[in-house]
Amino acid sequence: MIDFKKLELWFITGSQHLYGEEALKQVAAHSEIIVKELNGAGRIPVQIVYKPLVTTPEEIYKVCVEASSSTSCVGIITWMHTFSPAKMWIGGLKALSKPMLHLHTQFNRDIPWGDIDMDFMNLNQSAHGDREFGFMVSRLRQNRKVLVGHWQEEEVQDQIASWSRVAVGWHDWQNARFLRIGDNMRYVAVTEGDKVEAEMKFGYAVNTHGVGDVVKVINETTDAEIDSLVQEYADTYSLMTSLLKGGEKHESLRDAARIEIGLRRFLEAGNYKGYTDTFEDLYGMKQLPGIATQRLMADGYGFGGEGDWKTAALVRAMKVMGHGLEGGNSFMEDYTYHFEPGNNLVLGSHMLEICPSIASGKPSCEVHPLGIGGKEDPVRLVFNVAGGNALNASIVDMGNRFRMIVNTVEAVSPVHDLPKLPVARVLWKPMPDMKTGCTAWILAGGAHHTGYSQNLSAEQMQDFAEMAGIEFVLIGKNTNLYDFKNELRWNDASFRHG
């Protein structure tokens, strides 16, 4: 999906000429050591790249412009080893278009109690140098991540790694293309939105192709290609008896393979990173893309049902951020509830399109009637999802801004068989509890479609929202409705007058 090692975070250290050339040489040497050890620790998925010390407005502006135009740089790490008068940073920060992590650290871990003198104090001034820099970033009203701690701490390195994943996800959105096959599901509100504003705000484009454009490519698929993919299905999944060669539904499996091959080819030809479709607009397809969408998601494509391009883009970003981590990310929908006293649960699913990256065990490949859409019975992967910490995220268009809503959840391994439910599914308990979590979600205008993640944190989603400059609200273990309603009111006022 993406090669993290080809991407970079630029390490930029600020100082000034007040301290003399010998001190500046020590500052530069310390920065080089930090970069070398951060890379050598193996905890951060991207490459940290040392950049020469900046001590003048011209040097700062130049490196910020270069970072902004670099196709491999996903963000910058800034650190003021000494005092760096922050008026020097105004031009560069105004020109910077990449995310920034402000690392508030110092080279030495401990104060050398017996040897500390004014030379040491003059050299190691990040305790107030970073405050000067922090003022200017705040004065410019620029979003950034502030991380405090010694750079050799594993916790600090893991926090850099976590943020770097978010920066890669944001980088992946820039100039990305998402395909809308057909239009939105009729009369549905939350899946609509301002695609022009989204491109201005998020950097990705959403454009529509008629279903016929895709069907034409699907129909060009050869029998040899279909044979090969059908064999891959048989090798990878547990095939329902009727789908086996000679079975009464084997042709449905071949139709599903034909759709996957054609759809994948169309996406690759258009350099798309995700797509949407809707069962109300699939003229020319024999069945709704089920296994095709599931497998494409597993390969890193974003997806949103019923024309939901915002969720398709979000799922793609979440997949990029979580790439290489244990667990997966998927398109999801809150489908139905279990209101047993003391054991309230949400059953999350969709008609067909849940990504097998979150599956517990080997998926079963099955074919069943869909009940809606008026197409032939679609093939899909059926599986359960393991318990554990997870989250649901949604981006909605509030008219004057985009809002990201995140609800942390506790997924629950199913204790009952579901022999008559022929779709992939997951059970979870919303935080802090069912009534509060669902009430808060509805008050915030959260969509019924989400991105479900087993390997991302609420903090990472907040970092992503801040990179995008959009509103973020969290529904978690500490949420209470009184404060949450006030937060929504304050946010409304802020975005109305900000």
Write the layout of secondary structure elements.
Blueprint: E1 8-14, H1 21-41, E2 47-50, H2 57-69, E3 73-80, H3 90-95, E4 100-104, H4 118-123, H5 126-139, E5 145-148, H6 154-173, E6 177-181, H7 195-202, E7 205-209, H8 211-218, H9 223-236, E8 238-239, H10 250-269, E9 274-277, H11 291-298, E10 302-305, H12 309-321, E11 329-340, E12 343-349, E13 360-367, E14 379-384, E15 388-397, E16 402-412, E17 425-430, H13 434-443, E18 449-453, H14 458-468, E19 471-475, H15 481-497
Q: Keywords, please?
A:
498 residues, alpha/beta, 5-stranded parallel beta sheet
For the record, give the distance between the C-alpha atoms at the N and C termini, rounded to a whole number: 38 Å
Biggest β-sheet: count, sense, barrel? 6 strands, antiparallel, barrel
As a whole number of angstroms, the C-alpha radius of gyration is: 25 Å
Which band does the percent of strand residues land in?
A: 15-25%
Helix content: 25-40%
Q: Count of helical segments?
A: 15
Detail the poorly predicted runs.
Answer: none
The largest sheet has its strands arranged as 11-12-17-16-15-18
Class per helix and strand makeup: alpha/beta
Number of strands: 19
Shape summary = elongated
Mean pLDDT: 96
